[in-house]
Amino acid sequence: MTDAAVAGRSRRWPVISALGVVMIFTWGSTYYLMTVLAAPISRDTGWSLGSITGALSAGLLVAGLVSPIVGRAIARHGGRPVLSAGCTLIATGLLVIASATHLWIFWTGWLLLGLGMAAGLYDPAFASLGRLYGREARSAITALTLWGGFASTVCWPLSTLMLEVWGWRGVAAAYAVIHLFGTMPLVLWTVPAPPAQIERRSFEEPDVPRLAGREAIVFGLMAAMLVLNGLIVVNVSTWLFTFLQAQGLTLSAAVALGALIGPAQVGARVLEMAGRGRHHPIWTLAISTFAIAAGILLLAADYGVAGVALVLYGGGNGLFSIARGALPLAVFGAERYPALMGSLARPSLIAQAAAPVLGAWAIAGAGPQATLWILSALALANAGFLALLWRSIRA
């Protein structure tokens, strides 16, 4: 490796580390926020838990609807203005939530958070790295997911501590301050402008890359896998304790087993990083898909090995986050990557928005165990889509 290449790679670490901190707090103050705050908000305001968690679903729906616009903005202008806007929108939404005296104001805050999530979570961060580093961005994407894996580990205890001292409104306001005076300046100071040769590209090109033939099939299969994975992951995150308690475990035992997922995610990402991108990302997607399927099937079968099942599931989910960023880059190339990542994010986020409601219906109608088998069927269907995707890419 040349000295210039080494220097270029070393300059990435301030960017990746800064974006890693940003990911911890954007995820922790949006996607993971209601895990700690939903019950206290309900007790304090009298609003139902359904209406509170429904606001999160509405935010995810908004994020899905606007994500293609975000991808095109990153393709045109780079990640710095988009990611900083995302942090600002998240801060604004949190301030609205902190001051909400009526449910409609609370929902308004979550709609703003949805806009912020579209511009401030993994997909825009991946697109920004692809815009900066082209086909060499895979290692940066892997490192960023390693940082992001600590979002719940950092923010759940932090949210709980702030809740005890300041109440739920204080938690929302404190995260808003963190974004206004922490994450947003970090983005502005550390994320560089996109390469000049890309910046000078003609804007006569279409905002949405047109795909045809094999590429269109590959894109559709990727989108289908992201949708099914979103349905699985959100339902496991939302209803895991319900599933485990239905199998006879106490709440404390269920919580202890659930804690295995986070370390398994991080451990799998460390192993992927150790591989240094020597294998095609389709292999990462394959391992993640089969690990998730095996974990969900073991959990549904109720063989008394829930710990093993959740380690497999967590490791697979950790790798899936990397594959969703690295595979489109490898298949479609760096130039089209930001816009296509925005388009891929839309169906996934919409599925995640619908997942808790669909899961609640399934549990109420068929029971927790049957719902686990439904999730197992979705995981097996994803393995089928993987086989088709593998064939399409390798053709």
- The helix fraction, in percent, is over 70%
Secondary structure tally, helices: 17
The Cα radius of gyration reads 20 Å
Order of helices and strands: HHHHHHHHHHHHHHHHH
**What is the number of strand segments?**
0
Regarding quaternary structure, what we see is single chain
Instruction: Note the overall shape.
Output: globular
Instruction: Give unreliable regions as ranges.
Output: 1-8, 198-206
Tell me about the biggest sheet? none
Distance between the termini: 32 Å
Mean pLDDT: 89
Percent strand equals under 5%
Concise summary:
Helix content is 84%, strand content 0%. The chain is built from 17 helices and no strands.
Write the layout of secondary structure elements.
Elements: H1 3-10, H2 12-28, H3 33-45, H4 49-77, H5 79-98, H6 103-120, H7 122-133, H8 138-148, H9 151-190, H10 196-199, H11 214-246, H12 251-258, H13 261-274, H14 281-301, H15 306-332, H16 337-366, H17 368-394
Helix pairs in contact: 2-8, 2-9, 3-4, 3-9, 4-5, 4-6, 4-7, 4-16, 5-6, 5-7, 5-9, 7-8, 7-16, 8-13, 8-15, 11-12, 11-15, 11-16, 11-17, 13-15, 14-15, 14-17, 16-17
Structural overview:
The protein has helices spanning 3-10, 12-28, 33-45, 49-77, 79-98, 103-120, 122-133, 138-148, 151-190, 196-199, 214-246, 251-258, 261-274, 281-301, 306-332, 337-366, 368-394. It is built from 17 helices and no strands. It is globular and about 50 Å long. The longest helix is centred in the middle third of the chain and has 40 residues, at 151-190. It starts with a helix and ends with a helix. Helices cover 84% and strands 0% of the residues. It is mainly α. Helix 5 (79-98) packs antiparallel against helix 7 and helix 14 (281-301) runs antiparallel to helix 15 (306-332).
